[in-house]
Amino acid sequence: MRRPILVRVRGTQVKESGEEDSIELITEGRLYCRDQSYYILYQESELTGLEGTLTSLKIEPTRVVLNRTGGTAQRQTFEQGVWDQGYYVTPFGTVRIGVIPSRVDVDLTESGGSINLEYELQIEQEKVSDNRLSITVQRLETH
User: What average pLDDT does the segment 5-29 reach?
Assistant: First the structure.
């Protein structure tokens, strides 16, 4: 059963220069469990620059798989200490993106919880920044 949820996504990027940027998105989404994995689905917004994109997260105890479809396309796997390379496809072109996660913390149940990721972001195999991604999920009560 797909439960309605409130999703809060906070991303922080620390560039090599030390400059720090943060963005936060709060939106409604859906949470469901299948084959011992949780799935979170939500629509991106103009705020993230990904309007028209559906983001889905497959959450396992030690791994998170991000999949974006629509206006942009991306598939990235976050598993602590495991380098993952994928492609970020936009209407303006395709970029090769790599991540090296140093932290993958999952504390999620059917009623909500959190996911915390810390990783090095690479573009075309060059380090761009150190990133933190915090996702909290809260079940919405339906009447």
Answer: 93
pLDDT computed for residue 127 by the predictor: 95
> Which of 53, 46, 56 shows the shortest CA–CA distance to 25?
46
47-56: pLDDT as tens digits: 666 777 899 9
From the list 140, 142, 141, the residue with the least C-alpha distance to 6 is: 140
Strand 53-59 versus strand 73-79 pairing type: unpaired
Residue 120 CA to chain centroid, in angstroms?
A: 14
Residue ranges of alpha helices (H) inside the chain are none
| pLDDT tens track for 117-139 | 999 999 999 999 999 999 999 99
52: left (phi over 0), alpha (psi -120 to 50) or beta: left
CATH number of 3-79+105-116+133-139: 2.40.128.20
Adjacent-strand bridge partners of 42: 29, 55
User: pTM of the entire structure?
Assistant: 0.90
- Residue 28 in tokens: 């409604």
Enclosing H/E stretch for 86: strand 84-90
